[in-house]
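Self-study notes.
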Amino acid sequence: MPQRPSKFARAITASFVVGGVVVAVLAVAAAVHDPTSDAAWVAIPLGVLLVVWGVAFARMSADDSPDDDETENEAPSPAPLTRLSWVIALLLGYVAARMVGRPVDSSLVAVGSVLALWLVSRAVDRWVRRREARDGDVGPATD
């Protein structure tokens, strides 16, 4: 029998679900009021993804209880939650930049820069892991 999530986990879940609903409703209202507002149209999927993040977090924290070695009851991987977090951060960055009055091109450059830095970080991490595996985790040279 799965253990109930903690009060803290339920508070996080409720915050993201309620926040996502509020963001989506306000974004739909803004898009209806001004259909040319790209920030409003981008905020709609942002609100939906906040709700999805909250539900994914709830599923992850509910499955966090110890099991009796059954493979069918394994806890879900945090990787989808990480991917959702990145998409939410990118959408939020775009919406925030547009809401303070920045033009679309500078908003896209800001989002692209964050994405590029993340990709470079992953590439360097992968390169370091391959080098450590090849060198046998020798450590820094002391010549």
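Second protein, same conventions, sequence then structure:
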Amino acid sequence: MKFAVGLLAVGLTLTACSGSGTAAPPPVTVTAPVSIPPAPTADPAVVSWVDGFCSAVNGYRKRTNAESQPGQPQPKSVAEAQKALSAQLGAFAARTGEVVDKLTALPAAPVPLAETVRTSFLGKFTTSRDRAAHAKTALDGAKPGDEASQTPAADAVEKAQQDLDGTYDPVAPLAESQDLLLATATAPGCKM
């Protein structure tokens, strides 16, 4: 008897699932007009300022790479080492000084954040330039062959490089402003 009740239940279930044969309604297609907003364009004044800023900083990097001379022969005397270190300090002061001049020559920043970033970079490059220039002056004032004059000069090279920490990517600090970020995407000086 249980077997018959089970077969009856299966039969009813199969009958209920087969349906009445009505077709599903056709799918409804809704077409909405496509409206893509125009891409935002950067303000030309902002692009010009950002281009000048990025060009100054990236120019330093390009010039440093161009002037690096790997594989230079080791100086044979303390006097030769002094000359080589003096030349290195002079070149460093010139490169950082060029950035200081370019950042100083920029017009007023069109966005407040840009002025904050410029002031920060200007401070770092100025400190680095001054440190290298003062160390060169002290080294050049030492007697030729004075070994003790080299340690402070070598320390100044290292510290002058550390002064520039955080300045190698001019775009990153500008990214907090949508206007500046948009300008960096189109400014030629921001491309390396």
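Instructor comment on the second fold: The two ends are 87 Å apart (CA to CA).
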